Amino acid sequence: MQKGRSGRGGGRPGRQGHRDRPDDGFEQRIVELSRVTRVMAGGKRMRFRALVVLGNRQGQVGVGLAKGTDVSLAVSKATAKARRALINVPLKNETIPHVITVKYKSANVLLKPAPKGTGIIAGGPVRAVLELAGVPNVVSKILGSSNKVNNVRAVLKAFNLLKLRA
Questions:
Q1: Where are the beta strands (DSSP E) in 90-137?
Q2: Given pLDDT bands bounded at 50, 70 and 90, which one contains residue 24?
Q3: Predicted structure pTM score
């Protein structure tokens, strides 16, 4: 039997699948990935910033924003933050319970319930959050700022303000 990296279980023992987390039903989507710089005495220091949305398509969603020295580090840190910040989304008849307009900083997001078969009518970052939250039918409109981070946070704020009537 051959030792080392043969592609058939070689390498360090006990490390199989350490990169893949157990399949817990959560799906992640990178909404924004940007290169940011800090000017230091010796020049510019580059880092990467990742905005990640994590959801199970069954009413749970979280958002993480993190920086790292390389892309994979930034994404993994953002995913870990999103996992710690999961919220539950109240659903009623496969849509949100009522119309809501939320302002987060300069971003305004309007979410409206929609009848079955409508699908998700939303743009960009708002669509990613709604899809991963598992809202099948909803109409939304981004008003004001087009900043992805603030629009995603506005949708999460809207989810926290949604109320199911008893």
A1: 100-104, 107-113, 120-121
A2: confident
A3: 0.82
